[in-house]
Specification:
The chain is mainly alpha-helical and 239 residues long. The chain is 39% helix and 3% strand. It has a two-stranded antiparallel sheet with strand order 1-2. The structure holds zinc ion (ZN). The site of zinc ion has 8 residues, from helix 4.
Length: 239
């Protein structure tokens, strides 16, 4: 098995080195070379790097979005035309047809995308990459925001493996939780602005808690939800 892997890695490493531009982010290359299976292309090396660093990708994607603002007239709404069908997905104005910036701009953060999906023009191309519509970092951030439970290990590590509610040691059955529940973010959407609102999907609003603490928190939230008048909210959207 390891002979097969060694041979494969020798071949892919040669391929990667041939395809590598003269300028390439050093941490990405170091990460690629440390993989049990070396990624075969510079683009895959970058994807692998961000996949392995979801919290860093989250922070970067929010910082990039923070360089701009929501387009004039845009509001967070659910529905067709590129909008999300659930308030559980983060709002993304530039993914909506009416506000799309077109090739060369990231549909998550709205900033220009450069060679290999990188967020900075390391190569001095002087223009965005017209074939790209996402930053590699924003792909990883988008996945993380939509399904943070996939990154439970990274989040546990950040909390030194202690339950964020009780302070006790996190058990195997512990779960990822949004401190401020997303239904509340949706309900209070008039008070938030994009891009700052993205923090509710990112690490600042995520915690890992033990299952018993999570059950108690969810019950309290359900009680708070039921106590509100339902008339102003569509039950379809809240489901
Ligand atoms: Zn982006």
């Amino acid at each position: 098995m390891s002979t097969w892997r060694d041979e494969r890695n020798r071949a892919t490493l040669a391929r990667l080195r041939r395809a590598l531009p003269a300028i390439f982010p050093a941490p990405v290359l170091a990460h690629a070379l440390s993989r049990p299976l070396v990624p075969a292309t510079p683009r895959r090396a970058i994807e692998s790097y961000w996949r392995a660093h979801p919290l860093r990708a989250d922070q970067l994607a929010r910082a990039l979005a923070g360089l701009g603002q929501a387009p004039d007239g845009w509001e967070w709404r659910l529905g067709p035309e590129g909008r999300s069908t659930s308030f559980r997905a983060p709002p993304a104005p530039f993914r909506e047809k009416a506000y799309a910036l077109g090739p060369g701009h990231c549909c998550v953060c709205g900033q220009p995308v450069f060679r290999l999906g990188w967020h900075r023009d390391l190569w001095g191309d002087g223009k965005p990459n017209r074939n790209a519509g996402w930053h590699s970092a924003c792909v990883a951030a988008w996945r993380f925001w939509n399904d943070p439970s996939q990154q439970v290990q990274a989040l546990k590590k950040r909390q030194a493996r202690r339950c964020a509610q009780s302070g006790r040691r996190l058990l195997k059955s512990s779960e990822v939780d949004h401190r401020v529940p997303l239904f509340r973010v949706w309900r209070e959407r008039g008070e938030h602005r994009w891009p700052a609102i993205l923090a509710y999907w990112g690490a600042p609003n995520l915690q890992v808690i033990n299952r018993d603490a999570h059950v108690a928190k969810c019950a309290a939230e359900a009680g708070a939800r039921a106590g509100r008048s339902q008339s102003a909210y569509s039950p379809v959207l809240e489901a």
